[in-house]
Design goal:
Shape: globular
Helix content: 25-40%
Radius of gyration: 23 Å
Structural class: alpha/beta
Order of helices and strands: EEEHEEEHEHEHEHEHEHEHEHEHEHEHHH
Number of helices: 14
Largest sheet: 10 strands, mixed
CATH architecture of the largest domain: 3-Layer(aba) Sandwich
Number of strands: 16
Distance between the termini: 30 Å
CATH class of the largest domain: Alpha Beta
CATH superfamily of the largest domain: Glycogen Phosphorylase B
Number of domains: 2
Strand order of the largest sheet: 1-2-5-6-4-3-7-8-9-10
Length: 417
């Protein structure tokens, strides 16, 4: 292998020679992961999952290969995983579909050139390429390979898509599931939906949750990075509610802001999200949120130790997500924030159980809940915080998640031998 060192997302990695692979790899279980933006991780659910899966790997019998969307086709090593860039043209909404297909093709060709690779596993994250997967599944079968699919959440329900794209997502989901040997769901609610809506496909499903941790931030409460952020955003430690996530309709920002404005609390609402001027303008015309100095759009925070410190010092976390499976930002909040106020849907109750408080879209539901918190006993808040951390430690630790994935990947009874 080449020892050339390059930079990827500010990380130093070792570039691999395209023509050199050690035959010692022939005794490994090769797992090809397709569908994330790649590692070193940009912040995102699938990216964090792949980062943790490779970084916290326990078995030396598994060799991970991870695709990454980029502007070139170089190969490199990171977390002892073989990573490869896939050059993707800027073709709008079809970019993700092109990326998945190009990455899958690269993985199949890689295996064809290395006949010592036996029973490779192809793990595709999300259901973007269902109409095209059939032809690739035949090639995977000829390799003795296995196709795993993670259906993610209800992408076809997301309001950001027009009717035609939603129809494509649903059709694509069926195609991916039809050709999958095994379906891995990170939510029991998603698994239930899959088995009910596609019962005629007689699917083999596994529930393996998404992971998180409860380790405190590396920053202290008086770290200059945190204090400067508070000053810049006009916030005081312990005197703000927090919401984190993409600014999309199904995350219910409009409801959260409207209800917060109706509440009597003196605390602020800090919204960490990637809004643009058009979204803000639409929101202002509906709610006139600028008239309420408590409402603060504070931009995005990609520095993870800072984001964790912001969570730790929030008086409460508002979570309005209603579409999808196990949401990473909810797990991170449960591991860091004592008081979590969640929109009452099955996905959120599955994750938090009795370690959180719940609200609905009904008028005054959330505002009255916020008002009640101002008089809540501190011991009750501490107890909810303990329950939340225990929930993450017992059900969603990365150590447990990695164990479950490695057991699944190494179970030879599920191979095509």
């Amino acid at each position: 292998m080449s020892e050339e060192i390059i930079k990827i997302n500010k990380h130093t990695v070792k570039k691999l020679d395209n023509n050199m692979d050690e035959e010692a790899d022939k005794d490994k279980q090769h797992v090809f992961i397709i569908g994330s933006k790649g590692i070193p991780a940009a912040y995102g659910g699938f990216e964090t999952f792949v980062e943790k899966l490779t970084d916290r790997r326990k078995s030396d019998k598994i060799l991970y290969h991870v695709s990454r969307i980029a502007g070139d086709n170089c190969r490199y090593e990171y977390n002892n995983a073989r990573c490869f860039n896939v050059k993707v043209p800027n073709i709008g909404a079809a970019k993700a579909v092109y990326y998945d297909l190009a990455a899958l093709k690269r993985c199949i060709e890689y295996c064809k050139k290395r006949p010592y690779i036996k029973n490779p596993i192809f793990y595709i994250l999300a259901c973007r390429v269902g109409p095209f997967i059939g032809r690739y599944k035949k090639q995977i079968e000829r390799l003795g390979g296995i196709l795993y699919v993670n259906p993610d959440g209800h992408e076809w329900k997301r309001a950001k898509w027009n009717r035609l794209i939603r129809k494509y997502w649903k059709h694509s989901e069926r195609g991916m599931l039809k050709h999958a040997d095994f379906v891995i769901c990170d939510s029991k609610c998603i698994e239930k939906y899959i088995l009910q809506d596609y019962k005629e496909l007689d699917l083999s499903t596994f529930f393996i949750a998404y992971g998180s941790d409860t380790a405190p931030s590396e920053l202290s409460d008086n770290d200059s990075l945190f204090l400067e952020w508070l000053t810049q955003k006009g916030l005081k430690s312990g005197e703000y509610y927090l919401a984190v996530g993409r600014f999309v309709p199904e995350n219910n920002y409009e409801t959260m802001i409207r209800e917060f404005m109706k509440s009597k609390t003196d605390r602020s609402l800090a919204l960490i999200t990637n809004v643009n001027d058009r979204f803000l303008s639409e929101l202002e015309s509906k709610l006139h949120y600028k008239s309420d100095p408590r409402i603060k759009f504070v931009g995005t925070v990609y520095e993870q130790k800072l984001l964790k410190k912001i969570r730790e010092n929030a008086c409460g976390y508002l979570h309005g997500h209603e579409v999808g499976g196990t949401n990473p930002s909810l797990l991170e909040a449960l591991g860091s924030t004592k008081l979590n106020l969640l929109y009452d849907v099955s996905f959120n109750r599955e994750v938090a159980d009795d370690a959180a408080l719940y609200w609905t879209k009904d008028d005054n539901s959330l505002s009255e809940l916020i008002n009640s918190i101002d008089t809540m006993d501190s011991a009750e808040i501490e107890e909810l915080g303990k329950k939340a951390r225990h929930r993450v430690q017992s059900e969603y630790s990365w150590s447990h998640i990695v164990d479950e994935y490695e057991s699944l990947f190494l179970d030879r009874k599920r191979s095509k031998e």
